[in-house]
Design brief:
three-stranded antiparallel β-sheet; 4 helices
């Protein structure tokens, strides 16, 4: 088997890829026939032995999964504690130093991991984001993608910032091999218009839109 940015390629199925540069990765080896529009073998394909990036991606995904599980377990424990203490006769338990018992945590205050990707242009931010989103969604997670890069937004047109929950329906081979970085398919992002691909054009407006987007996400 093989994958493109974490999206798995089905075996014995043809895919049409055009106008884009992609890397197809395999963990255990595979055979891929690449032909051009005339049915001839493509001469612009090469095989690389460099796998450090993909291993780092998977290790990062594993750490994020552990943090997600930890957050979910904490929420479950907090809800159970709140349920067991609600109603009926209330008994106050004092510790050995006579300190009052701790109040149960609010489940809404427990959050999963947040990942900030930043760096210069064409350094692999979008590739890493796609891969982590694909791996998470394949496990049934629904990560929230927030793209505040107005120069090349993954969810909308340039000049915008946007946010959208991502499911496995969004992270397909078709979306991963699109001619642009957009993954609009099967998403309904919240998009705010900034009006420029350069955040220094109007920093006050950019900060205002960031604040508005953040408040909308919190709500």
């Amino acid at each position: 088997s093989a994958e493109i940015f974490g999206a798995e390629l089905a075996t014995s199925r043809p895919y049409v890829l055009s106008g884009t540069k992609i890397a197809i990765f395999t963990w255990h080896g595979c055979k891929i026939d690449v032909v051009d529009d005339n049915g001839n073998d493509a001469s612009f394909v090469y095989m690389s032995e460099e796998t450090d990036a993909n291993i780092a991606y998977v290790n990062t995904h594993a750490q994020l999964e552990a943090m997600r599980d930890e957050a979910l377990n904490a929420i479950s424990a907090t809800e159970q504690q709140a349920a067991s203490s609600g109603g009926g006769t209330t008994t106050t338990n004092m510790s050995s130093n006579n300190a009052p018992p701790k109040e149960p945590m609010d489940p809404t205050s427990i959050e999963g991991p947040r990942v900030l990707l930043c760096g210069p242009s064409d350094c692999g931010k979008s590739s890493l984001a796609r891969t982590l989103l694909s791996y998470a969604s394949k496990l049934g997670r629904t990560p929230l993608l927030i793209d505040i890069d107005s120069s090349q937004n993954m969810l909308s047109v340039p000049g915008t910032i946007a946010a959208s929950p991502i499911t496995s329906d969004c992270m397909t081979v078709k979306s991963a091999s699109a001619t642009s970085t957009s993954i609009l398919g099967n998403t309904t992002p919240l998009v705010l218009w900034y009006g420029s691909t350069d955040i220094t054009t109007n920093p006050d407006l950019y900060k205002a839109q960031l604040t508005k987007l953040g408040k909308a996400i919190d709500e």
